[in-house]
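Side project, low priority. Logging it here so it doesn't get lost.
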Amino acid sequence: MYLHLGKDTVVSFDEIIGIFDLDTTTVSKKSRDYLKMAQDNGDVINVSMELPKSFVLCSNEENRQKVYISQISSSTLLKRAKDSLN
């Protein structure tokens, strides 16, 4: 199964580690530091040029992590994931 993150971007459920709300997670310095490190390493993929609302942390088969920044809220992404499993 796949989760649509916006525009033409989909990720496999098997790759998803977590779905996070940008407003609440960036309050933590550790989260901000992680996102900055991922950005510096080229591991951030911006799905849309609109106002970002969430990020999805994924890991591929080689255990390389990618962070997808999405304009879709974390609650909507979670609802999409649950709906596609039913």
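Brief comment: Residues 5 and 44 are 14 Å apart (CA to CA).
Revisit when time allows.
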